[in-house]
Amino acid sequence: MLHRMVGDLMTTAVVSVRPDTSFKDIAEHLADHDITAVPVVDDQGRPVGVVSEADLLRKQEIQTDPGGHLPAAHLLPAERAKAHALTAEALMTSPAITARPQWSVVEAARTMARHHVKRLPVVDDAGRLMGILSRADLLRVFLRRDITIREEIMTDVLTRTLGLDPGAVTVQVTDGRVTLSGTVPQSSLIPIAVRLSESVDGVVDVTHRLRADNDATAGALQP
C-alpha cells in the first residue's frame, strides 16, 4: 500500500524570514503571498521559530479601544512582550515544531494536535527548511476520487496484501465511505480487511457485510 507522505503534500515554495526581519516586513510578506504564517530561519536555513498572524495581532490587542467601550486587554507576560515586539525574533513562537518529509499523514496530524499548531516546517536531515505543511495540505488526501480509493482497496488491500479472490469481495465507495461485502476464507480476516481499508488515504469510514466461508456454509446447512 502506498501512503502519501509529508514530502508528497508539503508546499516547497516556502516564504521565510530572518530573525531580524521587521514587524512591517513580516506583515507585508503575509499579505503579498496570501499566507497566515512564516517560518523564521537562521543563517544555515534552519527553522528557529514561526511567526503567525496571531503573533502580529498582539499589537492590536494592547491598543485602547477608540470607542472606549472595551476594557484594557489582560495579556500574559509573554503575550505582552510579543505585543511590543519589533522583529521576527521577538515575535516568533519558538522552538519551531518541525516535520520530516518521510513522515506519514497520521504522524504529522498527531504532531500538530499534540503541539496545538496549524502548520509544520519540513526539514531535511541537516535540519534545513525544505517545505511547509499545513492542515489544509493534510486534508488533500480526502479529495481523492472514489474510483481511485476503490481500486486501491481492491488491488492493494484485498488482492495483493490479503491474497483474496477479487470476485469474493465487493467494494463500494461513496464520498469516501467504504462498504465491503462478500465472503472471506476465515473470520479472522474480517477485522484485518476493515482496518487496512480504513488506512487507505481518503477513506472517511468503513462498514462491512463480510462473512467467513465457514459461516456461509454453516448457514446453508441449517434447515
Automatic annotation (TrEMBL):
Q: Which SMART domains match?
A: CBS
Could you tell me which Pfam families the record lists for this protein?
A: BON, CBS
**Any idea what this protein is called?**
CBS domain-containing protein
Q: Which UniProt keywords apply?
A: CBS domain
InterPro entries found in the cross-reference section: BON_dom, CBS_dom, CBS_dom_sf, Diverse_CBS-Domain, UCP036990_CBS_BON
**Does this UniProt record's set of keywords contain Transport?**
no
Could you tell me which residue ranges the BON domain spans?
146-214
- Residue limits of the CBS domain? 10-66, 92-149
Tell me if tRNA processing is a UniProt keyword of this record: no
UniProt cross-references to CDD domains, sorted A to Z: CBS_pair_BON_assoc
